[in-house]
Every structure is written in structure tokens, then in C-alpha cells.
Specification:
Blueprint lengths: L15 H12 L36 H6 L3 H23 L6 H11 L1 H13 L5 H14 L3 H30 L8 E5 L4 E5 L8 E5 L7 E12 L1 H4 L5 E4 L3 E2 L4 E13 L5 H12 L5 H28 L1 H9 L3 H21 L2 E3 L4 H4 L5 E5 L10 E7 L5 H11 L6 H12 L9 E5 L3 E6 L2 E6 L1 H6 L9 H9 L3 E7 L2 E9 L6 H10 L3 E5 L4 H11 L3 E3 L4 H13 L4 E5 L5 H6 L2 E4 L13 E3 L5 H37 L4 H19 L1 H12 L1
Parallel strand pairs: 9-16, 9-18, 16-17, 18-19, 19-20
Antiparallel strand pairs: 1-2, 1-3, 3-7, 4-5, 4-6, 4-7, 8-20, 10-15, 11-12, 12-13, 13-14, 14-15
Helix pairs in contact: 1-4, 3-4, 3-7, 5-6, 6-7, 7-12, 7-23, 10-11, 10-12, 11-22, 11-23, 12-22, 12-23, 12-24, 14-15, 22-23
């Protein structure tokens, strides 16, 4: 007997040829609908998030039957495989005493091993490659042919247990990542031209006016038409501070009213809401693999042929049980599973902190970045400028100049108009109402108050309107130009009465962000379409040595290209409005546009709230993820390596080696879940 080193109790007298024919007929049976699951039977279900789908649930209630219904065919098969595998294992023991149990044992084994043998056939015959499934097919076949049905069932049972446990872990990780964006059907009151009507939130239509009170979740995106409230938007933005909203504000599905009451006109419902779109992005992201994951899988696959040769060569020296233990050692599936769970958990942590990662490979790629390029306008600076000094001319006071400008800009919505109105309000000015406003595109506007004509705009606009420009303005204007600040000119009845200085508003967190990035050895660069002077001033203020001014959108992409051609790994941080090409060119791209445009943004990472401090957090979490992946892979590999060395040098048998392999998986999953445990602990102490 060539298997004298294996316990005789595990053998069942039988004819090997019959077994091979039985297994072969099972492998040739149609299984096309599960073909794609040959290697991925343990993968989590991936339902599309559709907040608007019709449902019988009310106020967040979820039935177990619905949870089961949305799971994939493969996942249900995995659930069925475990009891079949355990039952078959029991039958194998029974067959050693009652040979009549051999037939049902073989049928069960054929069912449980079909994925393994199909994958082995495809790799060995079609792709001409040796992978882990080829080794597993050899192990099972050798045990079956030699009559060791109990041992043949050991890897099948362990594989089924592993797939069941890991499937649960990955499903839970995926669900935790996307759960916040799942729609929960609730009853909602709406106004449809008559008295209030109670309907299911699934039935909301664009244009409906819904009434949401304190403690309720907003079920659709919309514009506030009446009321005032404090809204918790942390699900979308990661920001714990509630937002105060009133008529005219935009609100989003899956956010919660903490206080107040709102009437909201629906603009997007169901799967069109921002929350649903973000959920879809996350649902697709969870399946991305980092290059490290792919390399580890490739390395194990490449090692399989040498391992099989080593097992065959060493067979006379170490015996069949140890040779098969050596064949079972490579932990490819365990590396794949544990690595995927680790990446999923970091995506979850990032999502909780308001950082939407649309490409999971970013966690690895951003560690290669050595240069961070910031777009200036809308990224380093706020869209709205700050009113600085006010020059008064012609006997007017600064307050009068500001009053006239605010009156003219009263009904304008652009950032400069808002800045002037806010400064006037802060000064306690009571701005009157203009009789008529006329906008001269690209230059300025003309307002009429009774019999007076008020002009507000650029210096060029004043010249075109025939307004004389006194030399008294020059020192003030030259000082503004020297500091890189822009100006708004104000005239009344064709006489210049003043000049208002506009200063760029640098985001409050930017100086600290720059310091933190420099501390991490990142080179900082500013790209701007603005003039040289303001760009130079900002770079000097932030301690950034390299800047590019007067850059068109196409120029920004070329500059990123040039930096990368010079050997730089670039992370481009922009607002995605006029820098979409540059975002695509960069090694890693980050957009600060926020949740509202997450689905259409071309960037790989979207900050759900325009807080640049989260860029630093992204770098830190990516570094931490890299370290965790290394620890995860080490935890998986060490027990498998111990099993291989034990088989080669210390006579370790097949069954202990299998358990060592599973021990490695458990250790790897333990390390992979650390980020979620840390996140939960920090939330409890927050």
C-alpha cells in the first residue's frame, strides 16, 4: 500500500476506475449558470441599491425572507454546500463500516467539489496553468482513488466552512459600507393641491411637496420651500455638526431632521438621489483589488508548479500524507479573502469620515504619491472672496460706497455680490431697493434708484460707460494689484465714488494641511488660472515654492503630465469644474466638490464636504491600510509556511496541515477587522 502512513480507518475498499468515471460524469454535467462562480463561491452578494424600489416594508422593518431573496445564486449555493459537505463527511465515516454508503458519499463529494474540478480543468487544459485548484483536485482525487474517503472529505468540509464564514464576514463588511445609503421605506406626508396625504416614500414623485418633522429621515432630495430646521448630514458629508436650513436650501435623502419642520419640493427620488448614487459607487468599489492583492495571488499561483514538483520528488522521503500536506500549503484563497476584507474595512472607515473612494486601488496608489498639486480657485480658496478696504472718493464715505454697491448687487447670486451684501450687513447698513437693474455681461451692472444711476463693475466697465477715473485712485489700486487683490469700482451718476478691494478667502484649514503634508515629505504645487501676482502671494503665504499662474484647463493637464514625466507621482486636488482633464491625468485625483456631484465627478476620491484636512487623513489611512495588509498577509502565510516546513522536515501529516491553513485564515481575518474595531471604539468615545 502506498498510503501505509495514513490511518486504515479512513479507507474504504473500492475500485478506483469506477470512482474516476463517477467523478468525470459529474464534471461533464451542465453548470453554465454557475460558471463564473467557479473561483468566487465565497464572494459577497452585490445587490444594486435602489432606494425607490417598491417594498412592503414600513419604517425600516426588514424581513428575513427579503434579505435572503436579494442574495446571489452562488451565495445560496455556498449556504447549501456546508450541510451537504458535513453530511457527506459523516457518510464517508459510515462507508468504512457499511459499504452501501459509498454511492451517496461519492454523489455528495461530486457536488461539493464541482467548483474545484471545473476551475482546475479550465486552468490546466484551457489556460495551460497550474493553480491552487489543480493541487486541490489532485489531493481529492488521490484520496478517492486510494479509498481514503474520509480524508478526501476533509478539504471539502474545511472549504465549505471557510466559504460560509468568510462569506458572512465579507457580506457584513460590504453591508456596513453601503448600509447608510440604503433606502428605508417610510410613511411621508405630502401636499398635492389639497389636504395632507399620507403615502409611502417609494411613491414620491418629482415636484411633490413633502412634510418632514423633527426625528424623521428625509426620503428624497429636494429644495426647502417653507420652514426651518437643523439637519444631520453626517451620512453624506461625515460632518458631525448639524446644518441649519431654511427656505431655498437644498437637502438630501438619508439625512435626518434633528429639530424643526420642513416642506420640501422633491427634485430627485428613488435611485436618482445622491445617496443612492453614492451607494451604487460603493457597491462597485468593494470588488476592486489592489495591485498588492493581485500580486500575492499571482505569486502563489506561480509557486504552485514548483510546490507540486517538490511534493512529487519528496514523496519517497516524507511519505504520501506529508507530500499532500505540502501540496495543500499554498494559501492563495486565504490571501485573497483576508486581503479583500481588510480593504473593505478601510473603505468603510473612509466612508464614515466623509471620504468617498470610487476606486479601491487608491489605497495603494496614494502611498506612491510624492507631489500634491492644488488647484487654487475653489480648492485652496473659497469661492466667495472677502471685502477688504474701501476707498471713498468725491466726498462720499466708505459706508455710502458699500451701500450703493450692495443696492446694485441686491438680487445677484454670484460670489462677489454675496461678499458685498454680507459686508454691508455686518456694517449695519440698511440697503434700499433699486427700481431697475441691468446686467452688462462680463463687465458689471447698472442699477437705478429714483433718478440716480449706479454703476458697479470693473475698471474697464467704467471706461466703457464714460466714467472719468481720477488719479486719486491710483495709489490704492496699485497697492491692491501688488498684493494680488482684485477690485470693484462704484460710480453714481457717471462720477466714480469709490473702489472696493476684494481679497481671496483662503480656506481656514489650508495652512495646517500644507504643514502636515510637508511633514510627510510631500512636494506641494499650486496651479491657478488667476494672474501671477495673487497666485504668487498665496504661494508665499502658504510656504509653497512652486506655482503655475494663468493656466488654462488644458495647461493644467499638460503641467500634470510634465510633472509625471519628470518622475513625480502626482495627487491632483481640485474642484472638478475646470480641471477634469487634469484629474484624469494624475496618478491619484481628489475632488472637493462634495456629495452633490459624487456620481458624475471624474475624480477617484471625492471629499463629501470641502474640508481639505481630509486629504491628510486619506494619506494617513492609506499608510495604515498598507501596514495592515502586510500584517494580514504575514498572519495568513506564517501558519501555511509552518505546515509546509513541518511536512518537509518533521513528518507533519495532511490533516494538521489543513488546520494550520485555516488557522492562518482566521488570524488574517482577525488582523483585517482591526480598522473597524478601532473605528467603533473611537465613535464610542467621541
Amino acid at each position: 500500500m502506498i498510503f501505509s502512513s495514513i490511518s486504515a480507518d479512513s479507507r474504504v475498499p473500492m475500485r478506483g476506475a469506477g470512482i474516476v468515471r463517477s467523478l468525470g460524469s459529474r464534471l461533464r454535467s451542465p453548470a453554465a449558470r454557475l460558471r463564473s462562480a467557479a473561483r468566487d463561491g465565497y464572494q459577497p452578494s452585490r445587490p444594486r441599491l435602489q432606494p425607490g424600489r417598491t417594498s412592503a416594508r414600513t419604517n425600516g422593518e426588514t424581513s428575513r425572507s427579503e434579505d435572503y431573496a436579494i442574495r446571489s445564486v452562488v451565495d445560496r449555493k455556498v449556504d447549501q454546500n456546508l450541510p451537504i459537505a458535513v453530511g457527506t463527511f459523516g457518510l464517508a465515516w459510515t462507508a468504512s463500516v457499511f459499504p452501501i454508503a459509498i454511492v451517496p458519499t461519492l454523489i455528495g463529494m461530486a457536488h461539493n467539489s464541482r467548483f474545484t474540478f471545473r476551475s482546475a480543468y479550465e486552468h490546466l487544459i484551457t489556460k495551460r496553468k497550474v493553480n491552487v485548484d489543480v493541487a486541490n483536485a489532485v489531493i481529492i482525487s488521490v484520496f478517492v482513488i486510494t479509498g481514503h474517503l474520509v480524508l478526501a472529505n476533509v478539504p471539502l468540509v474545511m472549504s465549505s466552512i471557510r466559504r460560509r464564514v468568510v462569506g458572512k464576514v465579507k457580506d457584513d463588511s460590504s453591508a456596513a459600507l453601503t448600509a447608510a445609503f440604503h433606502h428605508r421605506t417610510q410613511s411621508i406626508r405630502v401636499l398635492r393641491g389639497g389636504p395632507q396625504t399620507l403615502i409611502a416614500s417609494d411613491d414620491l414623485k418629482v415636484g411633490d411637496v413633502m412634510i418632514v418633522n423633527a426625528g424623521e429621515t428625509i426620503p428624497a432630495d429636494g429644495d426647502v420651500v417653507a420652514g426651518a430646521a437643523s439637519v444631520d448630514q453626517h451620512v453624506l458629508t461625515g460632518e458631525s455638526q448639524p446644518v441649519e436650513v431654511e427656505a431655498g436650501a437644498e437637502v438630501f435623502a438619508m439625512t435626518t431632521l434633528l429639530a424643526g419642520s420642513l416642506q420640501i419640493r422633491v427634485t430627485r427620488s428613488g435611485s436618482e438621489t445622491i445617496a443612492a448614487q453614492i451607494g451604487d459607487i460603493l457597491a462597485s468599489t468593494v470588488h476592486a483589488k489592489t495591485r498588492r492583492q493581485l500580486r500575492s495571488e499571482q505569486l502563489v499561483d506561480q509557486a504552485m508548479l514548483p510546490v507540486m514538483v517538490l511534493a512529487a520528488v519528496s514523496l519517497p522521503l516524507i511519505g504520501p500524507s506529508s507530500a499532500l500536506a505540502l501540496l495543500n500549503a499554498p494559501p492563495r484563497d486565504n490571501l485573497t479573502i483576508a486581503g479583500a476584507v481588510a480593504v473593505l474595512n478601510y473603505l468603510n472607515v473612509l466612508s464614515r469620515e466623509g471620504i468617498l473612494v470610487k476606486d479601491g486601488r487608491v489605497l495603494e496608489m496614494i502611498n506612491e504619491v510624492d507631489t500634491v498639486v492644488f488647484d487654487k480657485t475653489g480648492t485652496l480658496t473659497e469661492e466667495q472672496p472677502t471685502v477688504g478696504r474701501v476707498l471713498a472718493l468725491g466726498g462720499r464715505s466708505p459706508a455710502e460706497v458699500l451701500d450703493y454697491a450692495a443696492l446694485a448687487e441686491q438680487h445677484q447670486t454670484h460670489p462677489i455680490a454675496r461678499a458685498i451684501r454680507e459686508r454691508a450687513a455686518a456694517a449695519g447698513l440698511r440697503v434700499g431697493q433699486a427700481n431697475h437693474n441691468e446686467v452688462v455681461l462680463g463687465y458689471g451692472l447698472i442699477a437705478r434708484l429714483d433718478d440716480r444711476s449706479i454703476l458697479v463693475g470693473s475698471e474697464r466697465f467704467m471706461t466703457k460707460q464714460g466714467v472719468p477715473l481720477p488719479s486719486a485712485r491710483l495709489p490704492f489700486c496699485e497697492a491692491c494689484h501688488g498684493q494680488g487683490h482684485s477690485m470693484i469700482f462704484v460710480a453714481v451718476d457717471a462720477a466714480l465714488c469709490g473702489v472696493i478691494e476684494l481679497r481671496p478667502t483662503v480656506r481656514s484649514e489650508i495652512p495646517e494641511v500644507c504643514r502636515e503634508l510637508r511633514a510627510r515629505d510631500k512636494t506641494l504645487v499650486i496651479l491657478s488660472g488667476d494672474h501671477d501676482a495673487p497666485t504668487r502671494q498665496l504661494a508665499a503665504r502658504l510656504g509653497i515654492e512652486t506655482y503655475f499662474a494663468e493656466a488654462l484647463p488644458s495647461d493644467k493637464a499638460s503641467i500634470v503630465d510634465q510633472l509625471q514625466h519628470d518622475g513625480r507621482r502626482v495627487c491632483f486636488v481640485g474642484d472638478g469644474i475646470n480641471d477634469a482633464i487634469a484629474l484624469k491625468k494624475a496618478h491619484v485625483s481628489v475632488s472637493v466638490r462634495g456629495a452633490a456631484t459624487a456620481a458624475t465627478d471624474t475624480a477617484q476620491v471625492v471629499l463629501m464636504k470641502a474640508d481639505l484636512g481630509r486629504v491628510v487623513r486619506l494619506f494617513d489611512l492609506a499608510t495604515e491600510a498598507s501596514s495592515t495588509l502586510d500584517q494580514t498577509y504575514t498572519s495568513v502565510v506564517l501558519p501555511s509556511l509552518t505546515g509546509a516546513l513541518g511536512a518537509l522536515f518533521f513528518g507533519l501529516g495532511f490533516v494538521p496541515a489543513v488546520f494550520l491553513n485555516q488557522l492562518g485564515l482566521g488570524a488574517g481575518l482577525g488582523v483585517a477587522t482591526k480598522p473597524l474595531l478601532r473605528g467603533s471604539a473611537s465613535q464610542r468615545h467621541a
